[in-house]
Amino acid sequence: MSMRGFIARTKANLYFKLPFHNHILNIIKHRRFSGLYIPKTIHIEVTNFCNARCTLCPYLKMTRPKGYMPWHIFEKIVDECTQIEGGGLKIILHKDGEPLMDPLLFKRIEHIKTRLKKSHIHFNSNAMLLNEEKADSILNSRLDSITFSVDGASKEIYENIRQGLKYETVEKNILHFLKRKKEMGKEIHVTLQMVINKDNLHEVDDYKKLWGDKADRIFIKKAHNFLVQKTSFQGGVLGEKQLSRCMQTFYLMLFYWNGDVALCCWDYDNLVGVGNIEKGSLLEIYNNEKLTKVRNAMINKNCKDIAPCNICSQIYGKDGPLWD
Ligand code: SF4
Ligand code: SF4
């Protein structure tokens, strides 16, 4: 591996392996200088349309409208990010939906890199639409990292969970992408992600064998309840006791395609109504009453009256990363 490749890979790995250390340092730094919380990772939902109907996802329960992010909203978010870029922002081009369905995806990546020179751009994809043309477009773009979500190591288990997708196509597409990456000498960091529950848990070892020597990283995490019930997909009813704190509102800011701001990555349906980027500035919204209330509850580790955190399986259960 070339020195450039080594640096790119180490940098990308650090984005994944040290997210909290990185973000906490930034929070302390920014609070000291401005008194404001400043996000370090920005999710931009380019679309919430999806070509799949996964059983571990609340896609079918989503009541908010479907659409693609209009260019003027996208531009405003990126413009505002230039004010807070500092040492660099992580820009993630998905929230709920499949980014490869967005016709403006590559134009957006180019725009971000032009305006935010230190940014690290990432998105997750189910890889069903990753044909040869899309693979080359990604590899020729300035995307820094990508995660392919594949929740099984066999056709039967995968298609039972990732409904509407075809295992053979997804596997073929990812293998082709990895082959082209090598041929083209590109440094884009590739993660294979498996979300587990009781139905696919027995395939974890096969999964590691299948992808371990091909991807840069394998990430295996427990399914989350997506705030739709007081149970965990891992099984069992959530306890009354809050087990941990959640840092999401301290470093993440997530925009739905229409400019509305989500509470966190599990908020699939604008459950809190934090604000909209067309009606205020990024920092005003990020430091408004609604997010401050959640942050204070988190600092005090007392979310029992804070919806939807009080049914979150991340802090009332043990859902979270399992193997990285
Ligand atoms: S591909 Fe992603 S967004 Fe689409 S249904 Fe599956 S988990 Fe949900
Ligand atoms: S506790 Fe759960 S619901 Fe609340 S902000 Fe964190 S991840 Fe979201």
Features:
324 residues, 9 strands, binds iron/sulfur cluster, nine-stranded mixed sheet, alpha/beta
In short:
The chain has 324 residues and is of the alpha/beta class.
Could you describe the 3D structure shown?
The chain has 324 residues and is an alpha/beta fold. The protein contains 11 helices and 9 strands. Strands 8-7-1-2-3-4-5-6-9 form a 9-stranded mixed beta sheet. Strand 2, helix 4 (105-115) and strand 3 (120-125) form a beta-alpha-beta unit. Helix 3 (71-84) runs parallel beside helix 4 (105-115) and helix 5 (132-140) packs across helix 7. The longest helix is centred in the middle third of the chain and has 18 residues, at 167-184. It binds iron/sulfur cluster (2 copies).
What overall form do the CA principal axes indicate? globular
Bound molecules: iron/sulfur cluster
Main-sheet strand order equals 8-7-1-2-3-4-5-6-9
**Number of helical segments?**
11
How many strand units? 9
Any low-confidence stretches, pLDDT <50, length ≥5? Answer: none
Proportion of residues in extended strands: 5-15%
Query: Quick check: average pLDDT?
Result: 89
SSE order, as H and E?
Answer: HHEHEHEHEHHEHEHEEHHE
Distance, first to last CA: 22 Å
Oligomer: single chain
Helix percentage: 25-40%
Overall SS class: alpha/beta
